[in-house]
Amino acid sequence: MTERLTIRRPDDWHLHLRDGAMLRAVLPETARHFARAIIMPNLVPPVVTGADATAYRDRIMAALPEGMQFTPLMTLYLTEQTDPDDVAAAHASGLITAVKLYPAGATTNSQSGVRNLDHVRPVLERMAEIGLPLCIHGEVTDPATDIFDREEAFLNGVLRPLTQEIPDLKITLEHITTHHGIRFVREAEGDVAGTITTHHLMINRNHMLAGGIRPHYYCLPIVKRASHQRALIAAATSGDPRFFLGTDSAPHLDHAKISECGCAGVFSAPNTMSCLAQLFEEYEALDKLEAFTSLNGPARYGLPVNEETITLEKRDTPCNYPAKYHTPDGTLTLFDPTVPLYWHVLD
Ligand code: DOR
Ligand code: ZN
């Protein structure tokens, strides 16, 4: 028997589209299933001003194939030089949906990020005043902190004090990877929601490291042990409106991943909806899929839900997403969900 599920068209609340040839290669993969996405600003150089965001948005729209619909929700990359007036103007004009905080050195292209939160306090206070959300990469960068503990250390050392000092600041704790993060969002004193990626729901660190090292599963924050994965699955499938999808689909060319010092990032845009339908079905929560992918995010950001729908169909034959995607600069590997997927998205 074929089963079908029709849900409102999803949005992606955390996406890397890059620029140039890579942008042209990956944008259609997101636009095929998603109506909108929060676009990460960690280009080289980063998207720091309203003028940068306007130019980047124009490049994204120029790269969108004829006939496809997609709305990029732009963000600014917070630096210690960010001007609160520029941020407020970009928000007032409707250009940006959020500001992104990268602790300096936490991840790919985060060198221009924030070293000392005191230096960006005027921007954060202004954002709280005008209701502009802050998206946070929640990891400390202290080299002495074990990489598997960096999220938890950030929650206790940075995020809790911030939510106490500026309780009105709307915060999205992005790509939560631990039960500590889930609990933090549930118990937060401030105004905090969280996104969860597809890959952190589908894999744990054994998939990355047991029986051979799999560089395509290397991402930041790094995947954690299975007990954390279970907490993420429980939160995502619960319907709790504070949790929603941010794929963090972050393409890197294969030669940059398979290297002496490989880049962090998982490219999951094409098969995310098939992965999630399968996972939610496995946890008897298919009725919560729409909340996670299509309802909770817009509610959190004060945006209307999408009027269009997508239909997923469960078939006996597995989906055959290509393992590799081609760009003029090299190939890109699709996230391997470790199991065959049977939920096909009907185009
Ligand atoms: O795995 C990741 N890749 N995590 C990030 O925080 C950044 C991203 C990227 O830009 O490649
Ligand atoms: Zn990211």
What does the model show?
48% of the residues are buried. 34% of the residues lie in helices and 18% in strands. The chain contains 12 helices and 13 strands. By secondary structure, the chain is of the alpha/beta class. It has one domain: TIM Barrel. The protein has an 8-stranded parallel β-sheet, with helices on both faces. The site of (4S)-2,6-dioxohexahydropyrimidine-4-carboxylic acid (DOR) has 10 residues, from loops.
What is this entry, summarized?
The protein contains 12 helices and 13 strands. By secondary structure, the protein is an alpha/beta fold. It has one domain: TIM Barrel.
Question: What is the percent of helical residues?
Answer: 25-40%
CATH topology: TIM Barrel
**Order of the strands making up the biggest sheet:** 2-3-4-5-6-7-8-9
Please report which band the strand proportion falls in: under 5%, 5-15%, 15-25%, 25-35%, 35-45% or over 45%: 15-25%
- Average pLDDT over all residues: 97
Task: Return the structural class.
Answer: alpha/beta
Tally the helices. 12
User: Number of DSSP strands?
Assistant: 13
Kindly give the count of domains: 1
Any low-confidence stretches, pLDDT <50, length ≥5? Answer: none
Tell me the series of helices and strands, N- to C-terminal: EEHEHEHEHEHEHEHHHEHHHEEEE
**Architecture per CATH nomenclature, i.e. the level-2 architecture:** Alpha-Beta Barrel
**Rough outline:** globular
